[in-house]
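Justification of computing resources. Each target in the renewal requires a structure prediction run like the one illustrated here; the chain below, 584 residues long, is used simply to show the kind of job we budget for.
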Amino acid sequence: MAIDSAFISELKFRCPIDEVIGSYVTLKRAGSRYVACCPFHSEKTPSFTVFCDTSSYYCFGCGSGGDVITFIMNRENLDYIDAVRLLADRAGLSMPEDGGQSDKKRRSRERMLEMHRLAARHFYENLTQGENPGKKYLASRGLTAASVKRYGLGYAKDSFDDLKNLLLKSGYSLQEMEAAGLAAKSRKNGGYYDKFRGRLMFPVIDLRGNVVAFSGRTVLPDGTPKYMNSPDTDIYRKGNIVFGLNIAKSGGDGTLILCEGNIDVVMMAQEGFKNAVAPLGTAFTEEQSRIIARYAKTVIIAFDSDGAGQKATSKAIDYLRMQGVTVRVLRMQGAKDPDEYIKTYGRDRFKLLINDSKTPTEYRVDMLREKYDLNDTAQKMEFIAESSEVIAALPSPVEREIYAFSLARELGISAETLKADIERRRKKAARSERRRAEQAESRAVTGGQDTVNRDRSKNLLAARAEETLIALLCKNPDYLDYITSQISPDDFVTGFNRRVYEFITESLKSDSSVSTLSFDESFDSGQTARIMFMLNTTVLSDNMRAQTDDCIRTIKAQKNGKVDAADLSSEQLAALIQKGDKKG
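Resulting structure tokens:
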């Protein structure tokens, strides 16, 4: 059920978009706008823009956009109602009685959470009661009963119906089990069977204490794959939860150790390092870095030392530094992962390793140093070039100065020469980044590969007039009666713009306030972003009434086939739409 527009208006008034977004990223004022590096993709040149006059945002780099509710939906991985609820809590507002999720959807989520809770308890009982392959595996790894209890580990029997029968007796349907990722349907006979079988089970627990998924490691000799993870469901999204964070976040000193696997987390906690966490069933993601940044000032990356671990380390460094987190990296010599290192050298030695962890720049230069033979002149030149690229990427001139001086001294070359090369590379990279941002903006303006408004590229003149008319209407809601008397949705040439126009006019007829417009319930994220783009980037003339008339005439003319825009340049198209500038 839709939320009352008056409530949305009050919510947006109490949650100014610049204040809400500013609590997640650092905003810098640029005239009447704010800019920042986008929280939804990696970039060095700010292209994320907050428009206070329209209470919206748009990123010219990745194309994300929306209002304050959209931002919370994307940032916190929430649906529309839960995003409104979060903002309402922030503003001290009570949700309207009819504004919650439908009873059916809410009950479905509640039942799914309850199924996972029952499954976790059942797996734990399987593991702790009697002998089983799961218990034998834990004994071989040296895991204690206390560790099992702390992380709620369990065992899924090598059975096709052990969990299924339990859930059936508890009143859950086979279809519910499948939707929850706890059962699968056979392609051969259509029967249902337990998804997890013969596996050590790691419950995935969110920050509210709910079991939302499972990760299962095979403990059978011929079991494949090694790890099996829950699929995406209504209560779980891969890459949006950090394993062990529900425990590690209470550590208190603001430092987290990022491991590669969940077994590493459990083993490290057993050795006293209870601030260990890990990505789950996926490579480390940007969203996981954002989640971690809420609870950690410093992250020590302790991924495996193999080639895949080194690649994962490099990506994690970039994601975490984007969030303003201080990053350190462990260099484990003589062991492939933290568990093996502690077993081989002991926890005290591992603690010293943590204290001696490298900065990201030191780590990357060390990796390059191992790659090249510095006694060979040609390889030494390649090492200098790649190391200079690493240093050039540092945002702080002080850091660049320190690393340049240290590297020059090591290599026996002039520090001034190396610094000049680093700055040259830095300027070149900045130019390339600006060029990419400009190209992205150009693609957005001219259509490019347009999956939102597929009619646009073939009807560019009409599409631009439609978009300008929509922007004019939102800027001047008092034009509503005049515009709707002059042009109907049927006059629109492109289907997407027609739909936007219908939505806005119908919304304004019931409520004259543009601030209450919320597109998220009626449009998907890509469509909402496009609407934000047209509202915030369309050039409006001083004589908006004349520009409105020009847009209406242009739309109707192309609808009736009286204008052929195929041979017109973009400047001519813009002039046709905006010639109201010259009218008095």
